[in-house]
Amino acid sequence: MALSEKDIELKIREEAKKALATGEVSCVIGWTTTRFPDKMKPFFAETEAECDELVWNKYCINGTAKYALDDRYPSKKFAIIARGCDSRAINRMLKDKQLLRENLYIIGVVCDGKENPICEECQHKNPLTYDVLIGEPVPEQIDEKRFAEVEAFEKLSPDEKYEYWAKQYDKCIHCYACRNACPACNCVECYADQYRTGWQGKASDRIQNQVYGLTRAFHVGDRCIECGECERVCPMGLPIMRQTRKMLKDINDLFGDYECGMPDDAMPVLGGYTLADPDEFM
Amino acid sequence: MKFKKTDLNEVLKTLAREYTVFAPIVENEEKKFMPWAESKDVEMEGLNTIKPPKDVLFPNVEKMYRYKMGLEGFIEEIFPEDTKRILFGIRPCDMRSIDSMDKVFLTKEYVDSYYAKRRDDATIVAFGCTEAGRTCFCESMGLNPNDAPSADVMMNVSADGEDYVLEARTEKGEELVKKLEGLITDGGEAKKDTKCSLVINKAEDLDKKLAKMFEHPIWDKVTKGCIGCGTCTFVCPTCYCFDIDSENYGAEGCKYRCWDSCMFSDYTRLAGGANPRPTKKERLRNRYMHKLSYFNERYGETLCVGCGRCVEKCPAHLDISEFIEKASAAELGKEDK
Ligand code: SF4
Ligand code: SF4
Ligand code: SF4
Ligand code: SF4
Q: B103 in the Ramachandran plot: left (φ > 0), alpha (ψ -120 to 50) or beta?
């Protein structure tokens, strides 16, 4: 029988307490309430009492995994409440060697979707990597419409595409929320923060906003785990996941079925090279 | 004085003959202050804009001077053009934020000539809110959502909902109202009963209390979820920090200034690479302290006007109003002096 929301919440608290009790974990990263019933915020439980503040409901939306990067050399483990998307984020950060598995304690939770449009497209409701699992695994769906939006967009003329994105980037306020929320954006120092290189201008104007948007999409490349955080956090509502989806579609077309954040040892598609790689675009 | 709501377009058209009129316009799926034209879709009522109107006086990117090197080298200042402008329909919180920016850019012996020029050229028509967003807490910060005392003209919806009622409060305001002869009539009773959605418990002397709380454990807790984006600072009507940089093409180029954010890692990075605010804890502490304590110390008023924009837009759901309550209730420890 599937666990109710409340049951899962109680289990999360219980597992969180157990994790802290081992003495090996510094904090448990999950969610807690705010004054608004539809906003649950990331929360870092450090004591047994704080574990009782952890919640689980359809507004627990923010990604949890990336907070582990706040301390890349921790003296104790981070415990992370991980849904399917968070587990994929962890897997990719491990593959990118930005995190060490032994510094993580992963409390996996089967997730049947949140109040977040991206969850309708989710192909991984079951966490892929965990130390302990809460909830019974559920059957996964294949999202037939994964690239439908991109395919429709590809039909536009170059001028129409440019016009579309130019308008979008005129709204961008250059806040870097999309980068900072993204688990794929895990570089120790982002190119955009490297001052005096002249790569990224600080001004928020049409040119610099677009330079940033393009570079972000290409740098995310094969690392996008399709969590939708970039689009959710954008204060100006730019549909930027369409760009990283385009990257994924091209990768699928060129290299075969691909999803990022799987628990395997394979070299990332864009991180390795074999003689069989397609190169007609070069 | 009043004019019919249905005459709004006529009023804007009349004003637009002599001024550039920045009004709350919906375009490209976004409501923001931009120059009015007949084809534009003005939305006076409803919620406030996501982006504050501060960029009319303090643009996001402002070219300061251009130069060329070599035998024909020169340096030439780029100064804001002579444009009489009206900021039409800004909300009381945003008017109050302009009062704060005036203090920063125009007082304490240094006058920022770029800001001063734009400010001198501007006439401000404030508009009383008819609806408060769920994150609005301006009343708790000492404001009134129905009234903006320092506006040149105060405008409210009339009690019967048919008219906009005007009150000219300064010479600039009188001058503006004169242009509307024929469109405005005497009388009109303003409706001033809008209430803020959020009422928060703020300690009377929070600024002084916070001044003692630099090392308080509260900062470790409240800052953990922050992802260090610039969202809160860029949507804030009172964040006024800027950076200066240049754009060079061969031997020519220009210097510009652009908004900066104290939430960015490079904000306090020194020439040698050291950073006195190395993590989000120090950065967010600075933001909150600046809004709620440092500014009071220097200018005698709080810099957060309670517009609620950062509360609504923070991707990690950090909430300065919640912080104000927590800090107001916090016990001081022995490290807090
Ligand atoms: S969906 Fe957006 S935030 Fe999530 S991994 Fe892809 S690019 Fe990053
Ligand atoms: S989150 Fe949105 S507004 Fe901010 S930099 Fe990204 S695209 Fe621009
Ligand atoms: S407080 Fe929120 S909006 Fe501000 S930098 Fe942190 S995460 Fe971004
Ligand atoms: S700190 Fe937040 S609530 Fe206060 S004025 Fe700035 S954006 Fe508005």
A: alpha
